[in-house]
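sanity check this:
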Amino acid sequence: MNKYKKLLIGIVLDAIGYVSFLIPGIGEFSDIVWAPMSGWLMTKLYKGKPGKIAGVITFVEEALPGLDVVPTFTLMWLYTYVFNKKDNVIDKA
């Protein structure tokens, strides 16, 4: 998958995570569904050990109240394509 397509998908998924702030009371309930789903989606977008670790981090971030502002998918994209100097080995795993 094209890295910019992954970025766009990540931004959309981060935006979905922000929805819980828009609906007081009900919003935090939505995290019960969104937290495991976002963790699973992270492991599908980024393969291998880094994807699994990011999936756990995403799950915890979405499950804990008040941490939804952290753009985990975008941060993982930055880690993978900007800060990781190993020629993007993550996608080849």
Observations:
- The first helix runs from residue 3 to 22.
- The mean pLDDT is 86.
- The two ends are 13 Å apart (CA to CA).
